[in-house]
């Protein structure tokens, strides 16, 4: 290359080109989702119910006196969550909501940064703007901001829990997940991970913090007993609206009860095998892959077989998706990413011409996405197990002996 060509065709690192493309797009997407969509809000409003409950708490009025026969968002946090969310009502509703949105955006950006660092990438690499772009392109992040709910903080607690677990900061890992459990118990299945490693310190703080906060909040709430007598039974029941779990979706479409139970049991069995395989072959050799994938399978299965699964819970699968950068990931195939599109797409399937089919897609894209993702992970791990068995048989080795896991 001569001197003139060096100026006409300057060499640029391809990674820098990706960053140059993604940074402005990601920043504008964050601006659009937060300043416009989130502030505009939607018919579904999770924040107002929490704000009103906080206001009632501060004014010593009943908190759990809602009418659960309506399809409006209901306040379902335990007394510990009421105690932690109480400061929201110090400001007026609009200022409080806008502040909550702003903090949620900061938390989501922090989550993207932590996810990038957890998988060994620098903040100035192309991976960071790529993760930000993916975050804010999804329905799960967009509707977390639009509906203005607590999920961003749950994701932060989950990432902190996983990173502190890897760093062997057991008590602090328990604090990170315990604070989320005090508000929303959605991460409770992840306590299986330290339990398998017999790391009791994690469980001590993870369980102790919500217990202590509930004890502290109980006498401060005038109708705290109603949480047990009214709210808990409602939480245990399966509702047929805004529910992407197998039971909720089946109830909405009138599926026979026996088939619903067959599907729930089948996904639970697949999860048991997947978790067993991951623990046996990866927990000692690749802890990051084990933690991130196992957490995704635990939570994805919970969303499907539990009584309530909502689409914006999908953000808790982000660590599992990020394993695509690791050898041995279950995400290195196209069905897995077809599943991700299903459970995370912000596309809305509405059609005048194809109304029945569009309605089916719109109501089923999330449960189908979760289902395909769990089935894909199970099949990938099952085939690896079969390959290992075949390799042992060909080599004349006992089946229990460790061998390299196929990538």
UniProtKB/TrEMBL annotation:
Location in or out of the cell: Cell membrane
GO molecular function per UniProt: hexosyltransferase activity
UniProt KW keywords: Cell membrane, Membrane, Transferase, Transmembrane, Transmembrane helix
Lipid bilayer topology: Multi-pass membrane protein
Pfam families from the UniProt entry: GT87
Keyword Transmembrane: yes
Superkingdom, taxonomy of origin: Bacteria
GO cellular component, one term: plasma membrane
The UniProt record lists the keyword Transmembrane helix: yes
Family: Belongs to the glycosyltransferase 87 family.
Stated name of the protein: Arabinosyltransferase AftC
Native source organism of the sequence: Gordonia hirsuta DSM 44140 = NBRC 16056
Gene: aftC
